[in-house]
Design a protein that fits this description.
mainly alpha, about 575 residues, 27 helices
């Protein structure tokens, strides 16, 4: 692999290679970009050629209703939300081709006692599940219908007063919020009466061959090891499938123990017992998998979502994050006296930015060891599971406004999926605010990697009195971040050109959620499986000496929680309350 040789000490970085055009097809970072963009282009071609029927007519009708309702009342009415829902139901991924792609790329589904049910479900089993879930669905449907009736009644009372009575307006808004929550519950339960037969084994076999071929093609150009990669990829893929299987078990889903945690745990179990076989080690391409996934993640960071939440969200995500990162790193060096600066930095980025994605990008920038990355990710996964359960409970118990709670969780819980799950515990608005702030925070992945690359070259690994050239910083900079940022810009511009409605349908609910995100989920899981298979507990043991990594994470996350809550309160309720009122 044509990479720069970097010593893991405080000595100056020694770059033994020279940048050339051949890097474009020999370096792992560039191959992550090429593969990521090929996937995005294919997804765009598929979905832009399969526009949902009646899409424009639905948008025109719904927008007319929403405009009329916005002029009629000082709050969002029942009719306004129903029109919005009508637009949101138009999704490109729900076309037949989208459903076919989702079926082929599906990972093991939910199961309780029999693991085989995660892979195969007969028509009789599907019908039995639907029949069992029907009473709960009917009850949820009736509750939502009654809540809608109550909301309409409260809205009518407020309207009779000319929408001039603040208390009546607040009562109507509260009733509508209750209806939205019960409607969301109805929608969730409804999914349980739409079970269909499936057999995932053919799709999994296709994914094994397809993913193996994709990355083997890149490995052929990187270091000519495609045959060795293919030989071991089956083990990595098997661990990833097993991780998805365990994460889809009902109890594991309830407690938020996801595929990332299982992939690392299963990989560690293998590597620390029977040992990862030598023939599989070439397939443990941790960074190749995750970097390709991160390029795909870049396409999901859409500028319109940043603008939608406004300045308050930007302050919470872009001001608190660097403050916490820098403070935690200094705290680790000056107070705890972490022996490894790279471990200190990776934990700081993992905890303050957005979890595993930021940890991997930062580890690439400061050339952290794989054991340090594994430890950082492990801490992140444990605390993410705890926080996604405890934070909604604390917010409810203290009577904290749900928008404030959503902003708090979006800025502190590491994983995007965990943020969404935690926000859903509270309300639709909390989910929207939490997920949007996390999306804004994801932009910091590239900024953080760039900043760390500069700092490491100019401060950590620079000999006193020796200048550092711009090229040396370029060598250190993780190039895949350019793909991340480029994908973000391209898809943000495309979204803007299409307009918010068509952009949501064709890009957000088409190319991204219906295609690239499916690939990204698998690539991330493959990376976590490779991390586990490549890590030995003996190599991690000395990092735990004195419990310093745990102390650093707990102290840093505590500071993050306090500062994020303060900033969210100031921005959403003191400085910009008018923006909060419109959410």
């Amino acid at each position: 692999m044509a990479e720069n040789t970097v010593q893991q000490t405080n000595e100056v970085v020694v770059d033994k290679g020279k940048s050339s055009w051949s890097d474009l097809w020999k370096l792992e970072d560039y191959w992550a970009i090429w593969l990521g963009f090929v996937i995005l282009v294919i997804g765009a071609l598929i979905f832009f050629n399969n526009k949902p029927a009646g899409m424009d007519e639905t948008f025109t009708k719904a927008n007319a209703v929403m405009a009329a309702e916005a002029n009629r009342a000082p709050f969002k009415t029942v009719a306004w939300y129903e029109a919005q829902t009508a637009k949101e139901k138009v999704k490109a991924k729900d076309q037949s081709i989208g459903k076919t792609i989702a079926g082929l790329m599906a990972h093991p589904k939910s199961w309780t006692a029999n693991p085989l049910n995660a892979f195969i479900q007969t028509k009789a089993q599907a019908d039995a599940k639907n029949a069992k879930a029907m009473p709960a669905y009917e009850a949820a449907k009736a509750a939502a219908a009654q809540a809608k009736t109550d909301a309409l009644a409260a809205q009518a009372v407020a309207e009779q007063a000319g929408f001039l009575d603040a208390k009546l307006n607040a009562d109507a808004s509260s009733a509508i919020e209750s209806w939205l929550k019960l409607r969301s519950k109805e929608s969730s339960v409804k999914k349980k009466v739409h079970h269909k037969p499936y057999n995932l084994f053919p799709g999994l076999a296709l994914l094994l061959v397809g993913f193996g071929a994709i990355f083997a093609f890149g490995m052929h150009f990187i270091d000519g090891s495609s045959k060795k990669f293919i030989k071991g990829f089956g083990l990595v893929f098997a661990v990833a499938v097993l991780a998805y299987l365990m994460a889809s078990q009902a109890t594991m889903k309830k407690y938020g123990v996801g595929d990332a945690a299982w992939a690392i745990a299963i990989g560690l179990l293998i590597s620390n017992t029977i040992g990862t076989p030598n023939w599989a080690k070439k397939a443990l391409q941790v960074e190749f998998f995750i970097k390709t996934g991160l390029v795909l993640l870049g396409a999901e960071v859409l500028f319109n979502k940043i603008v939608a939440i406004g300045i308050p969200g930007i302050f919470v995500a872009w001001v608190v994050t660097p403050v916490v990162l820098i403070t935690t790193f200094i705290f680790g060096q000056k107070v705890i006296k972490m022996p490894s600066k790279t471990l200190n930095m990776v934990i700081s980025a993992d905890m303050s930015v957005c979890g595993t994605s930021a940890a991997i990008a930062t580890a690439a920038a400061c050339k952290a060891k794989k054991e340090e990355l594994t430890l950082s990710i492990g801490l992140s996964l444990v605390f993410t599971s705890i926080m996604m359960v405890l934070m909604p409970a604390v917010i409810k118990a203290t009577g904290m406004p749900y928008i404030l709670g959503g902003a708090w969780m979006g800025g502190t819980i590491d994983a995007t999926g965990a943020v969404a799950a935690a926000g859903a515990f509270l309300s639709e608005k909390a989910l929207y605010v939490a997920a949007t702030i996390k999306m804004i925070q994801n932009v910091m992945i590239g900024v953080t990697a760039f900043g760390v690359a500069i700092y490491w070259c100019t401060k950590v690994e620079c000999v006193e009195g020796q200048s550092v050239s711009a090229m040396e910083i370029w060598y250190r900079f993780p190039k895949f971040v350019l793909g991340f940022l480029t994908a973000s810009v391209i898809f943000s511009v495309a979204y803007s050109m299409l307009g918010s409605d068509a952009g949501f349908t064709m890009i957000d609910q088409g190319v991204l959620r219906g295609f690239s995100r499916l690939f990204r989920g698998w690539f991330f899981c493959l990376s976590f499986a490779a991390i586990g298979l490549a890590t030995n507990f003996r190599e991690l043991k000395h990092y735990f000496k004195g419990g310093k990594p745990l102390i650093l994470y707990v102290c840093g996350q505590s500071f993050n929680l306090a500062l994020t809550l303060l900033m969210a309160y100031l921005m959403f309720y003191v400085v910009f309350p008018d923006i909060t009122a419109k959410i």
